[in-house]
Design goal:
single chain, ten-stranded mixed β-sheet, alpha/beta, globular
Length: about 400
């Protein structure tokens, strides 16, 4: 995921005897976990368990009805090597902190998926020699935590490396074969046209290897998106890409498609409110999509002040909200009814969103010519010459002239 920062959080044995139970042995302790329905793994929002001021997952489960979390991120060691770590720094093999978080969640009847990759950092697909070695590294994570679900978050800079993508897709296929019932999602960048060139190459790699995950998800944010309508448009275009790549009909493509959003203010200053999430949720359920998730529950609370002084945070949303507002949309997607909401952080003011009191919001999909005016990041901007998909302010000598705050 395009993140403000990347990454990382498990210790009480949970006994179970049902047929759907997977039992594993780590050190001298036997851990048994019972899988949730796949719909919960499809709805699991991202949680950084060791960074970005993680919320109490148990309290969030109680207040929202959430039962599953997507723990982020597993990477290669910062010092090099083909062994799994949390955020490149904490070895999975010796971890107790993440296990403690997982056990807290499981003790309340929930479960986790683990996400590998994310934005930045060195991925195991880059560090390991081939798909088999990459799969062996990820199998350590599955075995350590008794996982029933895993997310392959393939983006910068890994998805520009064809060998790394080959290793990741090959590893995902091996893990799928060696762990029957494992729920596998593949997440990549979203664009106005669905996904970009590298995302399309990743899909072609999956086709070449004969690999079909439970879903391919896109992240329609940080790319000139300005509303839920722009996000659902991207999802529609991505459906067309899936159909043309794999030869699926529309319904089959939607059944293998997912949405991964960003709640509140995005890294590039876009805003996605509760109303936007409701619109995309309605689209996802109306088209029988497989996944609806977001980055992140660490941000699913109100900043102080609510607009965070016009900046994006990894620990709050930068929009007025009650704690857990966005998690409730994931709960609804999973097919559950969130508990009745009790306001915990009543909104005190509403931030000015670009387009309100400003020129029309900039869109990466639009073409602008000299003299056109837009708003972006609370500023007016005037085009100096023809431009498309060049973010205002991204380069000092770029095509946009800053005309002051709005």
């Amino acid at each position: 995921m395009k993140r403000l920062s990347t990454c990382l959080a498990a210790a009480t044995a949970i006994a179970a005897t049902a047929a759907a139970t997977t039992t594993l042995t780590t050190a001298n302790t036997s851990y048994a976990t019972t899988a949730l329905s796949n719909r919960w793994y499809a709805a699991a929002p991202y949680l950084m368990p060791l960074d970005n001021n993680p919320p109490d997952p148990g309290a969030l489960m109680d207040s929202t009805g959430l039962k599953a979390f997507q723990l982020a991120f597993v990477l290669a060691p910062n010092g090099g090597g083909c062994t799994p770590t949390w955020d490149g720094t904490a070895d999975v093999s010796s971890d107790t902190a993440v296990r403690s978080v997982i056990d807290t969640i499981r003790a309340k009847g929930g479960d986790v998926s683990v996400s590998i990759g994310g934005y930045g950092g060195t991925k195991l697909g880059q560090a390991c020699a081939d798909p088999s070695a990459t799969a062996a590294a990820y199998q350590q994570v599955i075995t350590k935590y008794g996982l029933h679900a895993m997310d392959f978050d393939l983006e910068e800079p890994e998805y520009e490396n064809t060998a790394a993508v080959h290793n990741e897709i090959g590893a995902a296929k091996i893990l799928q074969q060696n762990n029957p019932g494992l729920y596998v999602s593949v997440t990549t960048a979203g664009t106005a046209d669905g996904t970009g060139w590298f995302g399309k190459q990743m899909l072609l790699e999956a086709k070449a290897q004969g690999f079909t995950p439970n879903n391919f998800s896109i992240m329609p944010f940080d790319g000139g998106f300005d509303s839920a309508a722009s996000q659902t448009s991207a999802l529609t275009h991505f459906n067309e890409i899936l159909r043309s790549t794999f030869g699926w009909d529309e319904a089959t493509a939607y059944a293998h498609e997912g949405f991964s959003g960003m709640n509140g203010r995005s890294d590039t200053g876009e805003f996605f409110t509760q109303a936007d999430f409701q619109t995309v949720l309605d689209f996802a359920t109306g088209h029988a999509m497989d996944r609806f998730t977001f980055w992140s529950v660490n941000r699913d609370r109100q900043c102080s002040p609510p607009d965070n002084n016009g900046t994006t945070s990894g620990t709050c949303s930068s929009v007025p909200q009650n704690t857990g507002d966005f998690a409730r949309y994931a709960v609804t997607f999973a097919g559950a009814t969130p508990p009745r909401s009790t306001p915990t952080d009543p909104p005190t003011s509403t931030p000015t969103v670009p387009g309100t009191g400003c020129d029309a919001a900039w869109s990466g999909a639009s073409v602008y010519t000299a003299g056109d005016e837009v708003s972006y990041d609370f500023h007016h901007w005037k085009a100096k010459w023809w431009t498309q998909n060049e973010t205002p302010g991204a380069a000092e000598w770029g095509p946009w002239q800053d005309e002051g705050a709005c």
